[in-house]
Amino acid sequence: MEFPQILLTGFNGREEALNRIKRYIHEITRVMYYRTSDLTHSRRVLWHLESAISNILSVYSEFDINFARTLALVHDDIEILIGDPQLYDKERMSPEELEKLYEKEKDAIKKMPQIYGQIANGYDYATLLTAAKEKVKLESQFVSFFDKYDGAGEAWHEVFAGNYHFLRPANMYIKRLCDFPTKYAAMEKFFDKFPGYLPYKFDFNYSIQSGKPYTSISLQNNSGYAPYERWKRTIIQREGIDKLVLQIEF
């Protein structure tokens, strides 16, 4: 399926700002062999979503493809102002800390259109950012799923390269992704029809022990873990292999 270009007219400096925000900055994941940025991540979330559009439409004929695609590309834009709060930390925040973060995010949503513009690909920019945060619309729930799926894929990519720092997120994201059918009731029938989108438990300990940094040849080897293979395949098709094999941290 071909998709029209997403136009973010006047959003000067946005991509550069997203590229400066590095992923998985945390003491637990202090070494990331193939560390990415929010710019790379937002593009990958879009690609994962696009790869599933045909299946999504087979269940939800009224699914707003262009809204979802635009949302996928801008879903993390407020991190330009507030940084990238890690899921591990957010799940351990007190109610007071979560409320403080919530207000910080709302304030950022108000400021972002003043920086980049009111309209993103024909949609109200603030509405998009609010949808990404509130996750009420079905489209935003799917974007949230593929957001976490890409985070999981990044972690799996690390453990299969032998990086023990990513054992915890590699397992944590499996549970978070498998929570979606119960957390968002509207998504349940999609996962009933396409259960392969949900990851399953896997012994990553052995993978870490036997894993080595990738080469262009070893990247093609099948890990034996289907959710990771699908993540990898989409990225290779859309982005190529360079970011998957070029080790930047040791």
Main sheet strand line-up: 1-2
Order of secondary-structure elements = HHHHHHEEHHHHHHHH
Choose one word for the global shape. Answer: globular
Overall pLDDT score: 96
The biggest sheet, with number of strands, parallel, antiparallel or mixed sense and barrel status, is:
2 strands, antiparallel
Q: Percent helix among the residues?
A: 55-70%
Number of strands: 2
Number of helices: 14
Q: What is the CA-atom radius of gyration, in angstroms?
A: 18 Å
- Could you tell me how far the N terminus lies from the C terminus, measured between alpha carbons in angstroms? 39 Å
Low-confidence stretches: none
Structural class by SSE content: mainly alpha
Strand content is under 5%
Structure description:
59% of the residues lie in helices and 2% in strands. It is mainly α. The chain has a domain at 14-73 and 135-245. A two-stranded antiparallel ribbon has the order 1-2.
List the helices and strands and how they pair.
Blueprint: H1 14-19, H2 38-59, H3 65-74, H4 79-82, H5 87-90, H6 95-116, E1 119-120, E2 123-124, H7 125-134, H8 138-159, H9 167-178, H10 180-183, H11 188-193, H12 204-210, H13 226-239, H14 242-245
Antiparallel strand pairs: 1-2
Helix pairs in contact: 2-3, 2-8, 2-13, 3-7, 3-8, 6-7, 7-8, 8-9, 8-13
Give a quick set of tags describing it.
250 residues; mainly alpha
Question: Could you give a short description of this structure?
Answer:
The protein is mainly α and 250 residues long.
